[in-house]
């Protein structure tokens, strides 16, 4: 195993990935507690050949890998991997579920296959006693760029990198992510406390049955680059979701990424 370890000169800002967009929503939304979710800067060490998976090369402007399969349900973006500039997913549609965002809002949209799966999950949750709400799904490339650039202009680069995802790196741009919550409990809306509610626990233990994973699990911040987000679901299809659930891993680990601390397990 003579794989070369490279240090990516990326200081990870650990933050709530969905925070910025949520604040744009009208109504009685809770602002995520940013101060409490910023953990610390960490260096992410990865192997180049594994980072390179499904990539068409490095973006000279950002230094990030550009994914080569943005339309795949296996598309894999994170703080080191971005969607092609201007990417817009095909077949965006609205699931027949309960929403927070008003009619016509992009946040009600997901890719068709993911929307169908979301409907099934919400129906099953309802039958088992939990009324889930879809909070925030699709976000356009331009929307993410506006959010990021205005943050840079107003607060500086370092702050922006800490609190906004760079355009192209938000999973919400794939059309395969949906932030969910439970009806009637706004105190846990996009809060880590959602994970401790009965509904949040149901989501954690059942999302895989419908092809979803909790993308940023508890205790995996050093791997995903994001704080625990029990509300952020990512559609990957049943097979991968079951595998990830059963093995208790992240999408990063599924694709073979290895990080300091996981070396022993290999030998
Ligand atoms: Zn999210």
TrEMBL record:
Residues 1-19 form the signal peptide. One of its GO terms (molecular function) is carboxypeptidase activity. Residues 109-237 form the D-alanyl-D-alanine carboxypeptidase-like core domain. It comes from the Bacteria. GO terms for biological process: proteolysis. Keywords: Carboxypeptidase, Hydrolase, Protease, Signal. InterPro entries: DD-CPase-like, VanY-like_core_dom, VanY/YodJ_core_dom, Zn_M74/Hedgehog-like. CDD domains: LD-carboxypeptidase. This is D-Ala-D-Ala carboxypeptidase. It comes from Streptohalobacillus salinus.
